[in-house]
Amino acid sequence: MKKIITIILIISAYFNCQAQEIPEWLKKEWNYLTNGTGTWTTSNTEYKSTSEPFEKYGLEWKYGLGNTSIVGKLYGIIEGKENVNIWQFRLYWDGVENKGKTLQIGTDGTYGIGDMILINDSIVQSILIFHTLNGQAFKTKHESITNFLHHKTTSFNFDKKDKWVKNRTYIWQPVVEKQTASSQIDTLPSGELTLTQSIIINTSVDKVWKSYTEPEEWKKWVTPVVEMDFKINGTIKSHYDSTATIGDKGTMVTHILNYIPYQQITMQAELNENFPEFMVGEEKNLYSIVEFEKLNENQTKLTIYGIGYKNEQQWRDLLKFFIQGNEMTMNKLKKYLEQS
């Protein structure tokens, strides 16, 4: 009985916590930091030394559970590669104190925690008290000005006269992921090949999903003729010839095996006369998995996985054809959605 009561209390506490309201200025700051790849870099040329050998620093941000916080890390970069992690961060809203909070933890166990406030229309300020494993304590302040294309941070030290002394200023630039479709062939543990193709589309995940699952949208970027029964064990029947009808020679039939709305579709194609003879009988092993990843409200990463190809030269040659055709189609989808 005690266990049941405890579980009820935990569940009740969980749902009560959901009511806390995060202020718009903090949501805006998080949206800026996690936008796109969520990665930012800055030059460290001015401060580079034997004890600080990094040419650049990198920041990576992503949303935590329920989008009620963001987590990040700071790392050093040498010769263009991530060299060592330095700090981890979590930024969140404290609904009891009605304040933004920053938690920062270093590789040596040093940690800092403090308040994050908006001090004017554009500057976010964080004041943290740090504690080391040997019991020492110190205080720092950071001020940042952020938008989608620019992240300026200035640090301050607290001196012995109880005054803030300006330390360093960094200008961070967002790392932009390749905007056209990209492809990669990998080998699975089974020895089979997998083709991964992805593209960033500057529109909402809802619109990308709609373009895949509604026939009138499909016609605008894939094939001019389509019949769609979008459901589990449903089909998508299509034809590249605008004068053809479904059932004519060249009709493509794709089975929808399962899906998670706005996240993933698993499909399997029937092989028609347009496919090479060596593929006949192999269609049961071939799958296409389409993933829809919401990067922010106006940006989506679309990834298509082709799975089950044999690790043989004729299959590798076939993949070259798939790469070219799929990239062209994905780029066409991007152009359509971003211009509509």
Task: Write a concise synopsis of the structure shown.
This protein has 340 residues and is of the alpha+beta class. It has helices at residues 2-17, 24-34, 205-213, 215-218, 313-339, and strands at 39-43, 56-63, 69-78, 81-94, 99-106, 111-118, 123-131, 137-147, 150-158, 164-174, 182-187, 193-201, 225-228, 234-239, 252-260, 264-269, 287-296, 299-309.
Describe this structure in words.
This protein is of the alpha+beta class and 340 residues long. It folds into 2 domains: 19-174, Lipocalin (Beta Barrel); 182-339, START domain (Alpha-D-Glucose-1,6-Bisphosphate, Chain A, domain 4, 2-Layer Sandwich), CATH 3.30.530. The chain has 5 helices and 18 strands. The chain has helices spanning 2-17, 24-34, 205-213, 215-218, 313-339; strands spanning 39-43, 56-63, 69-78, 81-94, 99-106, 111-118, 123-131, 137-147, 150-158, 164-174, 182-187, 193-201, 225-228, 234-239, 252-260, 264-269, 287-296, 299-309. A 10-stranded antiparallel beta barrel has the order 1-2-3-4-5-6-7-8-9-10. Strands 11-12-18-17-16-15-14-13 form an 8-stranded antiparallel beta sheet. Strand 7 and strand 8 (137-147) form a beta hairpin. The relative contact order is 0.10. The model has no long low-confidence stretch (mean pLDDT 90).
